[in-house]
UniProtKB/TrEMBL annotation:
<dbReference type="GO" id="GO:0005737">
    <property type="term" value="C:cytoplasm"/>
</dbReference>
<dbReference type="InterPro" id="IPR016069">
    <property type="entry name" value="Translin_C"/>
</dbReference>
<comment type="similarity">
    <text>Belongs to the translin family.</text>
</comment>
<dbReference type="InterPro" id="IPR016068">
    <property type="entry name" value="Translin_N"/>
</dbReference>
<dbReference type="Pfam" id="PF01997">
    <property type="entry name" value="Translin"/>
</dbReference>
<keyword id="KW-0963">Cytoplasm</keyword>
<dbReference type="InterPro" id="IPR002848">
    <property type="entry name" value="Translin_fam"/>
</dbReference>
<dbReference type="GO" id="GO:0005634">
    <property type="term" value="C:nucleus"/>
</dbReference>
<keyword id="KW-0539">Nucleus</keyword>
<dbReference type="GO" id="GO:0043565">
    <property type="term" value="F:sequence-specific DNA binding"/>
</dbReference>
<protein>
    <submittedName>
        <fullName>Translin</fullName>
    </submittedName>
</protein>
<dbReference type="InterPro" id="IPR036081">
    <property type="entry name" value="Translin_sf"/>
</dbReference>
Length: 265
C-alpha cells in the first residue's frame, strides 16, 4: 500500500513538472500557431480559387454582349450581378484573415483571385463606359474588405487587353466599328511598354510583367491584323465569315488555359 502511494505521488509530481515545463508550453504555443497558419492559408487558397472561377464566369457573361458603350441586356446584367455578389461574400469570408499584421503572409495566395476579379470588373467597366476603371473604384468595389495593391491592379489590367481583343474580334465578325477599341488597346500597350519594372526602377512587378507583356502585345497585334484584313479584303469574304482565332488558344494558354462557360478546363 505504501509503495502504491509513493508511486502515485511520484507520478503526480511528474505530471505537474510536465505541465509546468516552460519549454513544453512554448512548443505547444508554436504548434497551435502553426496549425492556425495552415488553416488560414487553406481558407485563403480555397476562396481565391472560387473567386477566380466566378470571375471567369462573369467574363464569359460579358463576352456575350454585342455593343460597346451600352447597358448590358437585362439577362446578362442579372447573371453578372449574381456572380459579383457571390464574390463579395467570398471576400467578406476571408477578410479577417487578411487584415492583421500577418496578412502579408497570404498575399501570394489571394493575388490570383484578385487579378481575375479586377479583369472581370475592368471589362465590365470598359463595356459600359469605354474607359479604364481607376484603382480607387476597384477598391470601392471590395468595400475595403481586403487590400488591392497597385501591382495586382496592373496585372489585372494586363489581362483585360485579352478580353477586349476577344470582344473586338467578335465585333469585327459582326461588322461592328472597332476603331475606338483598337485605339484604346494601342494606348494601353504603349503605357505598358513604358513601365520600368527593372530592379533600378523599383522592381514593382518584375517577372510577372515580363510573362504578361508578350501575351498583351500579341492580343493587340491580333486585333490589328483582323482589322487590316477586314478593310483590305472585306469585300471578298463570304457572308458569315468569322476571323481565324488560332492565336487565341495561345493567349488562353498563357493565362492558365482555356475555359468553357462553366469555368472548367
Amino acid at each position: 500500500m505504501a509503495t502504491a502511494k509513493i508511486q502515485h505521488a511520484a507520478k503526480g509530481a511528474s505530471n505537474a513538472a510536465y505541465i509546468n515545463n516552460p519549454i513544453l508550453a512554448m512548443f505547444n504555443y508554436f504548434r497551435d500557431e502553426l496549425d492556425e497558419h495552415h488553416d488560414r492559408r487553406e481558407r485563403v487558397i480555397k476562396a481565391s480559387r472560387d473567386i477566380t472561377a466566378l470571375s471567369k464566369k462573369m467574363i464569359f457573361t460579358l463576352q456575350r454582349a454585342r455593343n460597346l458603350l451600352a447597358p448590358l441586356p437585362a439577362s446578362l446584367d442579372k447573371e453578372y450581378q449574381t456572380r459579383h455578389s457571390q464574390i463579395q461574400a467570398l471576400f467578406s469570408s476571408i477578410a479577417p484573415d487578411l487584415q492583421d499584421l500577418n496578412a502579408h503572409r497570404y498575399a501570394r495566395q489571394i493575388s490570383g483571385g484578385i487579378q481575375e476579379y479586377i479583369e472581370a470588373l475592368s471589362f465590365h467597366h470598359y463595356l459600359l463606359t469605354g474607359s479604364l476603371i481607376p484603382l480607387a473604384s476597384v477598391r470601392d468595389n471590395v468595400r475595403n474588405l481586403i487590400e488591392i495593391t497597385p501591382a495586382d491592379y496592373i496585372l489585372g489590367i494586363f489581362d483585360l487587353v485579352g478580353e477586349i481583343m476577344r470582344f473586338g474580334i467578335t465585333m469585327i465578325a459582326t461588322r461592328g466599328d472597332v476603331s475606338k477599341l483598337l485605339r484604346d488597346i494601342r494606348e494601353l500597350r504603349m503605357q505598358f511598354e513604358a513601365l520600368d519594372t527593372s530592379v533600378g526602377g523599383g522592381g514593382l512587378l518584375g517577372k510577372e510583367v515580363s510573362k504578361k507583356m508578350g501575351v498583351m502585345q500579341t492580343c493587340v497585334e491580333k486585333v490589328e491584323t483582323a482589322v487590316c484584313g477586314f478593310i483590305v479584303r472585306g469585300s471578298e469574304r463570304p457572308k458569315g465569315w468569322v476571323p481565324e482565332l488560332a492565336i487565341e488558344r495561345a493567349v488562353g494558354g498563357g493565362r492558365g488555359g482555356n475555359f468553357d462557360e462553366d469555368g472548367e478546363t
